[in-house]
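Just curious: can you write whichever protein you like plus the matching structure tokens?

***
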Amino acid sequence: MTRWRIVLASLAAALAAAALTVLFVWRPWDPVPDELRTAADRVRDVPGVVGVVVDYEVVRHDPKDGDAALARFAIRLDPALAPADAGASARVAAATLVTAEVPGVRTLERGVIVQAGAPRSVNGVDLYPVDVSAGSGLADSVDDAFTLWRAGATSVRSGTVEAADGDTLARLADLAAGRGMGLSFATADGRIRYDTYGDPPEPAALRLVADAAARPGVDGAIYVASAEPHVQVSMTTTADSPESQALAHWLEQHELATAVGHPVAYRITEPGFATILEGWVSGTGTVGAGAAPDPPCREPSPCS
């Protein structure tokens, strides 16, 4: 009986080992094809790359004409890289990944992001200080992101530059404008924000919202660089408070419209975001010699 037990135990161990071998070769928990895994291994050898993460999903099965799939690549760069070197590493790494093909997949949509720095977890999601999506100008975008990060940005992610305070944002906006970077800007707490539409920022406008956010009774200030540029300032006070009236006067006396060369409207809102005062920064709705200013609405009641 003892000999049979030994034989059975040996057979069970052999079967278990074989099963584990099959599982690790088959990897049912990991759907990434070997072709993409091989491409990721090549990218890890690119100077400056410290890691690559690959996610893969078949979004439509089609045995006849070929599947449709989605591959997502996250390239992690050494945070000590100089900006130009980071851009060069990102370009080489992305080019290696986007040429990889998977047999049996007719349509493979690839998404590539480049990340750097120590992540922080927000609701279970790791957010990296540098997080740039690949595009036609990936190397320049990564170069720009590293440049702003080195200059004091806490993060450059999803087209938005974050910094600890308005002074740092204004300095970064100067740098971005000089390099032609079409980025938005915000403090981490969201009290100061500059929303762009792909154009380089106007540093004077960012300085205005930073100064406005520091005024008494102000909860936050936003500049929107749309086709109709405007400043929105949210207050903790009512329309007829001295703080709101002083802010409206300050905006109408400000020289921003002259500095940027185009009209800038303002809106002052109370808690709940209802507009309580509105008018024109610098006191005019048009810029140019002899232009007649549009009268601002200074009444607490809705403007007609």
